[in-house]
Amino acid sequence: MIDKTKATVQKLRGGYYTPKWIADYLWSWVSESSPSSVLEPSAGDGSLIRPIVEGTSQPKVSAVELLKPESEKIKQHFPNAKNVSVINSDFYEWYSEYRGEAFEGMVSNPPYIRYQYLSEEQRSIQSKILEHNGLKSNKLINAWVAFVVASLELMEPSARVAFVLPTDLLQVSYAKELRRFMLHKLSELSLITFEKTLFSDLEQNTLLVLGQVRTKGDTSYDTVFKHVSVENDEIPKLSEVEPVDPPDAYADKWNDLFLNTHDSKVVRQINSEKSIDFSSVAKVEVGVTTGANSFFSLTNKQVINMNAEDFVTPLLGRSVSVEGITYSAQTQMSNDAAGRKDWLLTLNGTSYQELPKNLKRYILEAESAQINTAYKLRIRTHWYQIPGVWIPDAFLLRRIGQVPRFILNEYNAVSTDTFHRVRFLGNVDSKLIVFSFYSSLTLMSLELAGRQFAGGALEILPGDTKNIRLPYIDYHKGLSDEKLKQLDILLQQGLYSEATDYVDHVLVSEYCASYEPIETKRILGVLRSKRIN
Questions:
Q1: Mapping DSSP to helix (H, G, I), strand (E, B) and coil, where does residue 303 land?
Q2: Are 432 and 471 in contact (CB under 8 A)?
Q3: Which residues contact 145 (CB under 8 A, 6 or more apart)?
Q4: Residue 325 and residue 432: Cα distance in Å, rounded?
Q5: Of the candidates 314, 300, 323, which has an alpha carbon nearest to the alpha carbon of residue 392?
Q6: Which phi and psi angles does 312 have, rounded to 5°?
Q7: How many other CB atoms sit within 10 Å of the CB of residue 195?
Q8: Which one of 27, 277, 382, 480 is most buried, counting C-beta atoms within 10 A?
C-alpha cells in the first residue's frame, strides 16, 4: 500500500518507540479501570504491551502492527502471553473490517506519517474515519489524527485511553477539530507536557494524553481537565493534580496552556483591548516555490556568464543573506561579492527562442539531468517558468530562533519559501510596523501563535498571522529613520532584550500604546524560555 521509494521505513511507518517509564505510566492509568480488553493500534515491537504482560491482571490485548518484522518481535518478546493477539495489518484496513466488540481500554503511540506518504486507499479510509466522526478531511492532516479518532470510536463507554502524541495537538490548525472532538468524547482529559523531548531523533516534541470516555447517556459534555508540565522523569499521579478550566474548544491553538491563570487573563485582555490583528495591516503569503532552488537560484557570476541580466530578479534565499532589517542595494552587492545565489531566474512571458544561447544551454543541461521531472516542475506548461512571482513590501522568516527576522524590501527582491512575503495594506507606515513587530507584546503573541519544534525553532505560517498581535497605535503615523536604525543596530549586535525594551519605550511614550511592557516582557520570557530551553 505504501510507496517505499518516497521515504525511509521509519518515516513511512511513523514509528518512534516509547520509553519504558512512559509505557509504565500509561498502563498504570488505564489499568485502574480494570479493563478486560485493550487495543494497541500501532504496536511496533510491543513496548506499550510489555507492562500489560508483566502486570497482575491479564486483559485480552489486540496488537495491530503494519510491519511483519515488528509484529514478529512482539511474539518473540512475549512467547507465553496467551492473552496477546498480534495482528499484522495496516490499522486502517483492520479498522474498516473489524466487527468485534468495543474495547475497554487503549494504549497507543500513533504513527506520525504525513499525508503525502499515505497510499490512495489509506487516504480514502482516513477521510471516511474523520468525516464519519464529524471532522473535516484535508491534505494537511497527519495519520496520527485519524488513528486517535478511529481508536476512540472503538472504545466502550467509560474506557480509559492513553496516547503519546506530538505537541502538534496544541499547535496546528488541523488539530483544532480533534481537540474539540476529544472534549466532546471524553469526560476526563489530562495533558502531560515535558520540558525535554522524549524522542531525541524526532523533530516534533511530544506529550501524553490520558482520558476516559463518557458514560452512556452522558450529554452534559462537561470535561474534567488537567494539565501537568514535567521537568524530569517524575510524573505525578493524576489523582493528585487539581482540575483547571478546559481551554477554549474553538481556539486555533492551545499554546496558552503553558501560562498560569493570571498570565492567561493578561493575554486575553491585551488581545481584546490593547492590540490589533497583524493581518489587518498586512497580508502574508509563502515565498516563491521554485520546485528546484538549485536550478533557479543563480550567483552573479552565473548571470553574467549566461547573459541573463534581463531574466533575473534579486533574491533573498537564506537568512544569512541579510544581516539587518532592510534588504537594500548594498545587501545585494555584498551577496554578489560573497558569491551567494542571490538572483532568481524568472522567465515568465519569455519564449525559449528569445533566450541567450548560454541560457538555452543551461536549460537543456537541466533537462538532461532530469531536473524538470520533479513534480512541481512537470505540471507546469513550461517547467522553467515559475508562477506567482511578485515583489513584496517585506519578508518574514518562516522559522524563528531567538527573535524573528522581519525585513523591509528596499531593492525589489523576491524570496524563496524560507521567507514569507508580506504586503502592507492601505497607507500604513511600513517602517513603524516593522519597528512595532519587535515589541514585547508582538513577540509574546508570536510564541503563542507559532508551532514549536524540538531544538527550539518556532515556525510561523501565513495562517498563523491572524493570531499575531501588534500594539494598538496609529500605524499611519510615521517613524523616523533614526529610530529604525537604532533598532537595527541593537538587533545586529545580538542585544535582543535591549532592542525590545527600546521599542516598548518608544511605542508607549511617543505613540500612546496602552499595554504594560513589564507584564508582556515577563510573559514573553516564560514562553521563550520554555521553547528554547
A1: helix
A2: no
A3: 130, 135, 174, 175, 178
A4: 12
A5: 314
A6: -135, 160
A7: 12
A8: 27
Q: Are 162 and 40 in contact (CB under 8 A)?
A: no
| Segment 392-435, tens digit of pLDDT | 999 999 999 889 999 999 999 999 999 999 999 999 999 999 99
Per residue in 154-199, pLDDT (tens digit) is 999 999 999 999 999 998 888 999 999 999 999 999 999 987 766 5
Q: Summarize pLDDT for 28-77 with one digit per residue, the tens.
A: 999 999 999 999 999 999 999 999 999 888 999 999 999 999 999 999 99
| CA-based radius of gyration for the chain | 26
What does the domain layout of the chain look like in residue ranges?
Answer: 9-258, 262-281+428-533, 282-424
**H or E stretch at 34:** none
Q: Phi and psi for 387 in degrees, rounded to 5? A: -80, 160
State the cell numbers at 488: 537595527
Q: Looking at the domain 9-258, which fold is it?
A: Rossmann fold (3.40.50)
Q: Are strands 312-316 and 343-345 parallel, antiparallel or unpaired?
A: antiparallel
Q: Could you give the C-alpha distances from 71 to 41, 63, 187, in angstroms and in order?
A: 12, 8, 33
Cell of 62: 489486540
Q: Which three cell numbers stand for residue 298?
A: 543563480
For residue 396 the three cell numbers come to: 518574514
Cβ-contact 190, 155 below 8 angstroms:
no
Rounded Cα distance, 181 and 186, in Å = 8
> Mean pLDDT over residues 502-510, rounded?
98
Residue with cell 486517535: 148
Sign of CA dihedral 507, 512, 516, 518: positive
Provide the H-helix boundaries in 47-157: 50-54, 68-77, 91-97, 120-132, 143-153
- The per-residue DSSP string of 159-188 comes to EEEEEEEETHHHH-GGGHHHHHHHHHHEEE
Q: Which residues contact 47 (CB under 8 A, 6 or more apart)?
A: 17, 18, 19, 20, 23, 109
Residue-wise pLDDT tens digits, 346-378: 998 888 999 999 999 999 999 999 999 998 999
Q: Are 436 and 476 in contact (CB under 8 A)?
A: no
Contact by Cβ (8 Å): 44, 70: yes
DSSP, residue by residue, 422-474: EEE-TT--HHHHHHHHTSHHHHHHHHHHSEE-TTS-EE--GGGGGG-EEESS-
Our CA angle for 421, 140, 286, nearest 5°, is 5
Q: Which residues contact 317 (CB under 8 A, 6 or more apart)?
A: 293, 297, 340, 341, 342, 415, 416, 418
Check if the beta carbon of residue 273 is closer than 8 Å to that of residue 309: no
Amino acid at 430: S
